[in-house]
Design a protein that fits this description.
Elements lengths: L22 E5 L2 E6 L7 E6 L8 H12 L3 E5 L17 H6 L7 H15 L3 E7 L1 H12 L3 E7 L16 E6 L7 H14 L4 E6 L19 H18 L1
Length: 245
């Protein structure tokens, strides 16, 4: 079990033993994991990975879950070929590593993915979800890209966007009450700023007793008291997407 005091403990619960039902494709200058439902659809969700990158089984599991709910799901490599963080890496180098992977510099990749979804998959409505680093990227994109109908930021690193809250489309924010990386004071401030500045629908929800990474944690390691909140978080995410896409 990972040490929850680490700077960004997305690996709590370890990786799922999961291979994925989709396929890897080339999308412009980046690679992506794509999974499609059996029935045709014009709705898609972009899934933005955490620090462990686009090949993490946990994230692909969530992408496939979206597919079973009727969406085309695509998880692109937003690190653009740079190495994902490894649990074995020295956390003393974490801040320097993060500086080369800026969640607010994801516009080019988002545009390429949107074009792929439109041209190759016939998609007309697109939402975006993201975890940790990807949650921060969601907040950035929801401030910048009007083509994304809605967003779900799952324990996103909100400290990187302290002064930016004018969201373009409805956005749902998921946080764990016991997240050592995102203090509740930050969440409270986010709610205050959104209330003052946001003109679209939004929701900020805190899940009792949950730590960072709880929504896409390995299922076998779920504590009995955590399981209902993990399932609730996933259900809330799907319901939000269904409402706005």
């Amino acid at each position: 079990m990972a040490n929850e005091s680490r700077p960004c403990p997305c690996d709590i619960g370890d990786k799922l033993d999961y291979g994925g039902r989709g396929q890897e494709v080339q999308v412009g200058h980046i690679k992506a994991y794509v999974c499609k439902p059996s029935a045709s659809t014009d709705k898609a969700v972009i899934v933005i990975h955490d620090i462990f990158g686009w090949q993490l089984p946990n994230t692909r599991y969530i992408a496939d879950m979206l597919t079973t709910n009727g969406y085309i799901a695509i998880c692109p490599d937003f690190f653009v070929g740079q190495e994902a963080w490894k649990p074995s890496n020295d956390f003393a180098s974490f801040n320097d590593w993060m500086k080369t992977r800026d969640a607010s510099k994801t516009d080019k990749e988002a545009d390429v993915v949107l074009k792929y979804l439109k041209d190759q998959c016939g998609v007309k409505k697109v939402g975006v979800i993201g975890f940790c680093w990807g949650g921060a990227a969601v907040q950035h994109l929801m401030l910048k890209n009007p083509h994304l109908k809605t967003g779900v930021s799952v324990y996103g690193i909100i400290s990187r966007f302290e002064d930016k809250h004018s969201l373009l489309n409805p956005t749902f924010f998921i946080f764990g009450e016991k997240d050592d990386f995102i203090p509740l004071e930050q969440v409270t401030l986010l709610e205050q700023k959104l209330k003052q500045n946001c003109k679209v629908d939004y929701e900020v929800k805190i899940y009792p007793g949950q730590t960072h990474g709880f929504v896409h944690r390995k299922r076998e390691d779920i504590n009995p008291q955590d399981k209902p909140y993990i399932e609730e978080g996933r259900r809330d995410m799907i319901n939000w997407l269904n409402k706005y896409i």
